Amino acid sequence: MNKMWYPLKFKPILHIKLWGGLNLKKFCNKPIKGKKVGESWELSTIENNISIVKNGSLKGKTLTELLNLYPYEILGKNFVKYKEKFPLLIKFIDASENLSIQVHPNDSYAQLKHKQNGKNEMWYIVNAEKDSYIVAGFNRKLSKDEFLEHLKNNSIEKILNKIYVKKGDVIYIPAGTIHSIGKGIVLAEIQQASDITYRVYDYNRKDENGNLRPLHIEDAINVLDFDSINIQPITYEIKDEGSTKILRCPYFSVNLISCIIGSSYYYKNEDNNFKIIMIINGYGTIENEQFQKIEYAAGDTFLIPAAIEHFKINSKLKSDILEIFSE
Question: Which domains, and CATH codes, for the chain?
């Protein structure tokens, strides 16, 4: 065991969006100063958006550098599979206004057209205002021609499956699923490492230069799953304390760790795998094998290298934490 390893925290990469706001400062402690920030990229090796270590002896190194220097220590059993590119992109999102209605491609289409991964993703609702909703799939089966007719008539919202959400709701969005985040929602997004989005409808909004944002109708039609209907939030057991399985899919797995005030959660790395932990709320410390304690608070994201065999979460305030890993 190399004593250099500890929970790695990265500088947030903030993205200004016309639909963004200031809620990532309120709920996730992000350093926002008067800008409409829509996304905070927490962990990324996407081109021009490479995460940089913020803490400890590896401060200043990029995630890409670490993967090149220490692939086995970071990734463990997956080091051959993912050593050139981290498999996941982790974000917090503030939808102060509606996002566009959009769809993401699957792996085969994305590789063929963009030489990238597709995008399957999961949302965990951090906060939702009253009557806030997301869109996931259609509300009935329909043909491509019907879809195009609604698009032509600006009536697409009539055929979309709307889900009114609250804090703690979880929605899985497979590639090919038409979707959108409605205004008044802050969420954590776990997804494949991809930044490909096909915009289907954007409420005829104009960007800061007064131009309509481009749509990607042909690509969207090629990847849309018209059989994706009436999607509902994932049901899972809510515990006061301990770990709960939320999702298992081919691209990532997610658990929810809950800690009451003054409790500790012990984690032992039995599968030689990296872990990501996103702090949804709460405050405390993460303690590694050398009894080094690193403070955490709401909005923090840590990469736990596979070289760390066990760690402990000590809660000083009731904490809800997403534990994320790739199989």
Answer: 8-223 (2.60.120.10), 242-325 (2.60.120.10)
